[in-house]
Amino acid sequence: MKKIIVLGGGGFIGGHLARKLKQDGCFVRICDIKNHEYFEHEDICHEFILGDLTDPKTVELVIGKGYEEIYQLAADMGGAGYIFTGQNDANVMHNSALINLNVAKEAVAKGIKKLFYSSSACMYPENNQIDSNNPNCEESSAYPANPDSEYGWEKLFSERVYLAFNRNFGLNVRIARFHNIYGPSGTWKGGKEKAPAAMLRKAAETPDGGEFEVWGDGQQTRSFLYVDECVEAVLSLMKSDFTGPVNIGSEEMVTINQLAQMAIDISGKNIIIKNIYGKEFLTKYGFKCPLGVRGRNSDNRLFKSKLGWEVSKPLVYGMSKTFEWIEQMVSDKSYEVVGL
């Protein structure tokens, strides 16, 4: 039985990945600073260690000898309301960088055979993503570096950490740049949720004939990948001989208004989209409307050429599946709606 460690397995993607690995017959150890909110431990792992990976002693404990692979997804992160306001920059950079420095060093010390690191499309240069209709997120476009957030800078730094450990110490790494992964059993409220979950939650909570807010003019473009396909791509990368970095995402680009309308259509309600920005946003929320780059879309040509993998499901499929789950969460009266 292959022995696997999933760091960040208490999070959204990490939980889904750990569950798949366990289903595939691997022995799975998870470490995270929090329990998974929606999966029981027995469903996703054989052993769950609650610990802070910014502490090198925790990492030393978790990465035991005899484990073959590490999947490193642990990070301090969230949606636009968490990443782009600037209020969490120090924590995002300090905590995530410490985790990756600790993990790289300990993986070498314990002789880990292969390590996966989840980077992000947020590391691509801001100037390549000004045109909402023609963003450039080809892997080779990463330099000269100019990410639009401190989160992106940290991801780029940590990519370089793992590649340096690969060159100097022979650490066998695989690096992927995730593009907006979404799906059930993840954060869907509270400010750290991603755009698909936020739109679907608003559609579920908003009464028929009502309206909900979309930050900005709604013409920003993005692509979104369903979590099951993300897990499939990660496992394909780990089985390959390709180090990366490589994009893992969908090439089905939509505007944020189109994403919101898709959520409304799936809900079957008649809801009006209200775009909010500028002074109106400052008056209501007290800080500048966080929008991120103007346009971003995954470029999957490198992944396809190296591994032959392609996305198989359209956005509406995953959005429909996710809405079913979020609608159940909304109908659960154990939480309080504090605003849309």
What does this structure look like?
- This protein has 340 residues and is of the alpha/beta class.
- Helices cover 40% and strands 16% of the residues.
- The longest helix is centred in the N-terminal third of the chain and has 21 residues.
- The radius of gyration is 20 Å and the shape is globular.
- 46% of the residues are buried.
- Pfam families: Epimerase.
- InterPro entries: Epimerase_deHydtase, NAD(P)-bd_dom_sf.
Distance between the termini: 46 Å
Report the total helices. 12
| Mean pLDDT level | 92
Within the largest sheet, what's the order of strands?
Answer: 3-2-1-4-5-6-11
- Shape descriptor: globular
The value of Rg in angstroms is 20 Å
- Helix proportion of residues, in percent? 25-40%
Question: Regarding CATH, which class of the largest domain?
Answer: Alpha Beta
| Main beta sheet | 7 strands, parallel
**Count of the domains:** 2
| Uncertain stretches of 5 or more adjacent residues | 335-340
Q: Can you say what the CATH homologous superfamily of the largest domain is?
A: NAD(P)-binding Rossmann-like Domain
Total strands: the figure is: 13
InterPro entries: Epimerase_deHydtase, NAD(P)-bd_dom_sf
Domain NAD-dependent epimerase/dehydratase: 4-249
Keywords: NAD
Protein name: NAD-dependent epimerase/dehydratase family protein
Short account of what is shown:
The protein is an alpha/beta fold. The chain is 40% helix and 16% strand.
Which short descriptors sum up this protein?
340 residues; alpha/beta; Rossmann fold; UDP-galactose 4-epimerase, domain 1; 2 domains; two-stranded parallel ribbon
